[in-house]
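Example record used in the benchmark description.
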Amino acid sequence: MKLDELLASLDVRTDGDLNVEITGLSYDSRQSKRGHLFFSMARDAEKNRANVSDALSRGARAVVVRGWDDVELARPAVTWVGSERPRLLMGAVAARFFGAPSERVDLIGITGTSGKTTTSYILGSIFEVAGMPAGIIGTIGIFVAGKKIYSGLTTPESLDFESALAQMEREGVRHAAAEVSSIGLAEGRVDALNFRACMFTNLGRDHLDYHGTIENYFAAKLRLFTEILPRSKRANTVAIVRGDDPFGRRVLDAVKTPKVSFGMDRSLDVYPESFEADLSGIHATLSVLGKKIKIDSPLIGEINLLNILGASGLSAALGIELVGIGSRAQRVAGGVGYVHRRRKIFRGQGGKAGVRPELNRIVRVGIDRGGNEVAGRIGMNVRKVHDIGPKVEPDVLLETRDGHIASRSCPHPDAKDPRSSCGNGAISAPRVRVQHQRQADRPPQDGAHRRRQDLRKRLHGGGEHGGGLWGNLG
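Model output (structure tokens):
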């Protein structure tokens, strides 16, 4: 594609030949190749010069820089492009280079302090079991038709985002659920995307080291609904917003597109008419846009009931009509991706009818999907201990409007892969067991190394009979 086509009508300053053929895009100089347009986004002047030099040595044909002062323009056969916001420019250029796949793939953006990862997997499960292959973009990585193609930022850089959507389109995937972080929004990583629907889960105190204040944090989230969604080229866009969250109510007031509210309040569009939430899971009857849907889920706690409500409301808004959802997937305590915060451990295990861990207990969480165990003290970061062996065979069951029951059980093909796609496309969730140890039983506080050794021994059973706290997981 010609450079002048990629830059047409964009606010840039150029020096050099615009008729050059661009063979690819890159923002990491180590990934630059012959014919690439390289985006230099380092803020440190010395690092910026080093990156540009490295990209050019690898064959980059054109370079985008923030200013002219930090580079040597007098280099032969190089076209220079100046932009005040290179990252924002990269989004617009990437959309053109990859053919704007978000104009054809139904892209669902999910933002909020918690619930993004779990909700994206619930949506992916609904899409796939309903016969609509789905992609997932988020904390755990980017998955296309069950294959992991990227690990990195929760909300990838725009170039990676557009590339992934283009691959989804090539492989017949027409629906994608994506986590949209506040930092990704503030940096303009998703500004050039065309969302079909966007969801707001909640807002708590997080990322204040980046945003400074809770209001700045909220303002970044709000952009998804007041700026990015309204200019989407997709028809019939819709906002799905938790209506019993104080910041969610502010989103609902600000949104001008069609909207659906969800939460525990019966005045909302999607709410539970009745529910039980305990360690066996969630059993509920939901009212989804006036229609009753029965839920039988192994997910634990009120926080996951809210995730199910949001996913159900969004599915209904997109025209996926369900008479009931059931799942025999292995249990998740608190949901993937957010068992590491104190308040979420409480809510994840608790809800209204669950177990509330006492303050003087250690909470240990083991994820036995053939992947990793994690463990941590309440209020501290959860840390990875080590891998364990047995694989589980989870499955997902969903009843569609015509009464068809779709269910399939299969082992994970990859022990590190948090999802599985098999047969009808069922997506599995990892099983999580939770055990407690009272404060009085804790080992002496004589160094982090000894405590880690003791924790490993207790989790995996260092005695001659083995077992440990988990027993036999097979």
